[in-house]
Amino acid sequence: MGEQPRHSNRYREGLAVRRSVLGDRHVDNAERISTDFDRPFQELITEAAWGSVWSRPGWTKRERSIVTLALLAALGHDEEVAMHVRATANTGASREDICEAFLHVAVYAGVPAANRAIKIAKQVFVEMDATDGNHDGG
């Protein structure tokens, strides 16, 4: 996919934010496996989600991370929950923050959604701890 001159400033800003939250490895992989079919989608989420929403002033990346995790858990988007739990290493959201978000999910979106998200987070924490020894979370 690569950054091309045709991309807007919002896209370029979104790409920088996306990299800062998800990490270069994740973004590079998404770009590497992108095809003509899904490239427009990758460009859309980079510009809209990362360039228009995550780049807004007012909330920190930590706050956005917590809200994003709660929404993804409530909606049952398991792969995205795992990805954003991993991203907390870059956003500053702690494991306590994640727990609190999932408690809200339990009350406002249902215990099964929160239960599933907690199981996913616990598995991701094991993977993160095995990779970098970070036991504090976040």
Helices and strands in order:
Layout: H1 9-22, H2 24-33, H3 39-53, H4 61-75, H5 78-91, H6 95-109, H7 111-132
Helix pairs in contact: 1-2, 1-3, 4-5, 4-6, 5-7, 6-7
Instruction: Please tell me the overall pLDDT.
Output: 93
Distance between the termini: 30 Å
The succession of helices and strands, N to C, reads HHHHHHH
Q: What is the overall shape?
A: globular
Radius of gyration: 15 Å
Give the number of domains.
2
CATH homologous group name of the largest domain: AhpD-like
CATH architecture of the largest domain: Up-down Bundle
Low-pLDDT runs of 5+ residues are none
CATH class bucket of the largest domain: Mainly Alpha
Find the count of extended strands (DSSP E, 2+ residues).
0
Structure explained in plain terms:
The protein has two domains: 9-53, no CATH class; 61-132, AhpD-like (Up-down Bundle), CATH 1.20.1290.10. The mean pLDDT is 93. The protein has 138 residues and is mostly helical. Helix 6 runs antiparallel to helix 7 (111-132). 76% of the residues lie in helices and 0% in strands. It is globular.
Give me some keywords for this one:
138 residues, mainly alpha, AhpD-like, 7 helices, 76% helix
